[in-house]
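Sample entry (278 residues):
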Amino acid sequence: MGIKRFKPRSAGSRFKTMSTFEEIDKNAKPEKSLLAKKKKTGGRNVYGRITTRHIGGGNRQHYRIIDFKRDKRMIPAVVDSIQYDPNRTANIALLHYVDGEKRYIIAPLDLKKGDKVIAGDKVEVKIGNAMPLAVVPVGSMVHNIEMQPGAGAKIARSAGMYATLAGRDNGYAILKMPSGETRRVPESCYATIGRIGNLDHELVSLGKAGRKRHMGIRPTVRGVVMNPCDHPHGGGEGKSPVGFASPVSPWGKKTLGHKTRKQNKPSNRFILSRRDKK
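Predicted structure, serialized as tokens:
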């Protein structure tokens, strides 16, 4: 998939880039049986109070119901089309199973219309096939990885992501994560072979503020340009520094590198090496 650039005929097109969507089937329409309503909250909770800032507006969207569990075992399916999903960075593939059921999955790299995929314990190691980590060859690239058997994929689900199976140890698979972290996952967890497609997504430049608004993200105002009553960074004559050893949030909490993970989190025992100790 390539990147399209525009001539600078306006301020909004000067730095604008977008995907050419070569992998997408242009004539394919979303499967109505796999669409769900997506309610907008505006960042507000049930009491109408803003709990998450910078959320609001945006284009109307339907949620595509994705099969993260791949629990339809030993039943082959054919890829009907590769489609765009407005809810995620990766593309999605519509599968037609031989028994007539249809499901969406995250589209791996090089998966094409007409390809056959299957999920099960004893299937071929091929792009798009899902199987337990216990039977995946060491060194393989996998995505859509479960952290608990049957709980559905939680790891490596965005565009271009993959994890590498580095080895096995006492019923656990050792995964080298996209961040560089090394983690243990039960061998019975399912994963899909291959790397997720849409690799050029990270090269897209929005180019103007309006495209951010279309995504449902409202503007962010810097604290240093506010008044002291509105933000700890505010005030001062002219351009003033933050005035703290570390930048803080509007409520005085440290930001930019401050660790918020609990020291005694139960899943710590599954992490063999941290991403900050590469």
